[in-house]
From TrEMBL:
This is Sulfatase N-terminal domain-containing protein. The chain crosses the membrane at residues 20-42, 54-71, 78-96, 133-156, 168-191. Keywords: Membrane, Transmembrane, Transmembrane helix. It comes from the Bacteria. Residues 288-497 form the Sulfatase N-terminal domain. The keyword Transmembrane applies.
């Protein structure tokens, strides 16, 4: 319908039903005002969705009204549209904040995080399928366009209302400004200690501008830090002398965080699994020590945790990741490769495309999801069950290694959200090409049902962690020998729906070895004995591990500077 024809219908309706027309007009005006207030008062975190967040007097519409009242007609409409667009952008950033706080435990970084939207789309595709992902993306795009259009129309409507009765608009603006100044000067509060006078949006914009400046400055400093490496010039024959002849596995368990060992709804089952597997390992002559690491990421972006652990640099955003992987930083796999005494292998079943970072890390061979021979179904995001991943590693590398010991990095993905459907542990000789998992996947739970249920999501998360731990530790019990050394850890905590609001970024880290000399070298770390770090075990930043590890297992630890815990 054309605007002209719509205008004729609207005029006819007003003449025929004047009372109803006035009611509709007032309702639309009230809705426009409510939308403006909502944009200004909307929190960026679901934890703050409380009544007191919305019963405040914001200063921004008072300042906006004063500006619009002094402008001539045409500039006034242009500024009104710009204000509406600005409010729409504010809403979009706050909605992104809500999503990032839910999944990653932090707000949206307007400089660094746009690239993560591509990863979000890929996650939707893996979880919902191609059609579902396309539908979700289209819905989001339409919603964003609608927000911009509606907010601009809302501000224009309120501006025209002020223009029709300028005298009343001026008095109202003066009264509102006086009320705000009084509330601010007296520190008046309502519903607890929340001040009535609000300048949230001004503070929000100032905060984001400060973050932009800090981010740009930080990125420049990080580019210089990448080239500062105490181990860059350590001779190869002095690296990792305490592990020569050992088969070393570094294994990341997706979302294996502190919540798995301390949340009352999750920990009992995980503790029981670790106790059972610990006893099986002890019977085979293995021992373990465990501590805590603070991950550089939370709820997702696992590659940031991986790179932080392997490079000894704090990599908490995508720009840092690109910067470091474009350089020549010595990584843990790279240190093993530099000695010439190990074959280095990466097993990354979550990677479905070419992965040039494999060369940066120093792997002789990388196996991604296309190289592992899997013929079974995906389990939501996870391309294959962890038990299959480990079976493929055994078949392709461990069982037929040549004259060199093996250093491997293995990423286990079965505990990746949304934790449904989940695989089950089966006999190692039953795994085959993975076809056996088809009925297991088909009988599994629907990810949407699990993800939206606050109780069930914790239960299924716990099951996924128990499955991953059992798969890994059973593998060591079955295939490990006196030369096996396993380092396993979580890459980050699970999202806030599972770990809780304001949860720490801590993850467990454990070293398992058959040779007691391996664990003797880390006696001074203060780690707890066994597969579970105690509450009093030390907590290090994840970027501290590389230097500590290279120092503990190097021939001359004094050749490198070890960071403080």
């Amino acid at each position: 319908m054309s605007p002209l024809r719509f205008g004729k219908y609207a005029e006819a309706f007003r003449r025929k039903y004047p009372v109803a027309a006035r009611g509709v007009s007032w309702g639309i005006t009230a809705l426009a005002a409510a939308l403006v207030l909502l944009a200004l008062l909307l929190p960026g975190n679901l934890a703050y969705f409380e009544a007191r967040s919305f019963v405040r007097v914001p200063v921004e519409p008072i300042l906006g009204a004063a500006l619009l009242l002094v402008l001539p007609r045409r500039p006034r409409l242009v500024v009104a549209v710009l204000i509406g667009m600005g409010l729409a952008a504010l809403v979009v950033v706050k909605l992104l904040d809500i999503g990032f706080n839910m999944f990653l435990g932090r707000g949206f970084n307007v400089v660094l995080d746009w690239g993560l939207l591509d990863d979000a789309e890929s996650y939707l595709k893996d979880t919902l399928g191609g059609a579902g992902a396309v539908g979700a993306v289209v819905a989001v795009v339409l919603l964003v366009l609608a927000v911009f259009a509606v907010m601009a129309l809302a501000v224009v409507r309120l501006t025209r209302l002020m223009d029709r009765d300028r005298e009343r608009a001026v008095r109202g603006t003066v009264v509102a400004g006086t009320v705000w100044l009084t509330c601010s000067a007296l520190g008046l509060t309502l519903l607890g200690d929340t001040p009535l006078a609000s300048r949230n949006t001004i503070g929000f914009v100032q905060d984001r501008w400060g973050r932009v400046q800090a981010t740009l400055k930080d990125e420049a400093a990080f580019a210089e830090d990448v080239n500062k490496d105490a181990f860059a010039d350590v001779p190869a024959d002095r690296l990792l002398t305490g592990l020569r002849g050992k088969d070393v596995m570094i294994t990341f368990i997706e979302s294996y965080g502190r919540a798995a060992l301390e949340d009352p709804a999750i920990a009992p089952g995980v503790d029981a699994t670790l106790d059972e597997e610990g006893e099986a390992l002890r019977e085979e002559g293995f021992a373990a020590k465990s501590g805590w690491l603070t991950s550089a990421t939370y709820g997702g972006s696992s590659w940031l945790g991986h790179s932080t652990f392997l490079t000894g640099l704090w990599i908490d955003n995508q720009n840092r990741y690109r910067t470091v992987t474009a350089g020549r930083r010595l990584t843990l796999p790279g240190a093993f490769a530099r000695t010439g005494d190990w074959r280095t292998v990466g097993v990354v079943p979550g990677v479905q495309y070419n992965w040039p970072e494999g060369d940066f890390y120093g792997f002789d061979k990388v196996y991604d999801s296309r190289d592992l021979g899997y013929r079974g179904p995906k389990f939501s995001w996870s391309t294959m069950p962890d038990q299959y991943t480990l079976t493929a590693f055994e078949r392709l590398e461990a069982a037929k290694k040549g004259g060199k010991p093996l250093m491997s990095e293995i990423v286990l993905t079965s505990s990746h959200q949304p934790w449904a459907p989940l695989p089950k542990t089966i006999g190692w000789d039953e795994v085959g090409d993975g076809s056996v998992y088809k009925p297991i996947q088909k009988a599994g739970k629907d990810p949407a049902d699990v993800f939206t249920d606050p109780v069930e999501v914790k239960e299924e998360y716990a099951k996924s962690i128990r499955y991953s731990l059992r798969s890994l530790l059973d593998y060591v019990t079955k295939y490990g020998d006196e030369d096996t050394v396993l380092v396993f850890l979580g890459d980050h905590q699970p999202m806030a729906r599972v770990s809780g609001n304001r949860a720490s970024h801590d993850v467990p880290v454990t070293i398992v070895a058959h040779d007691p000399k391996v664990l003797d070298r880390i006696d001074d770390w203060g780690w707890s004995d066994g597969l579970k770090p105690g509450a009093d075990a030390p907590v290090w930043r994840m970027d501290a591990f590389r230097d500590r590890f290279l120092t503990a297992y190097g021939q001359e630890p004094s050749a490198a500077e070890s960071p403080a815990p």
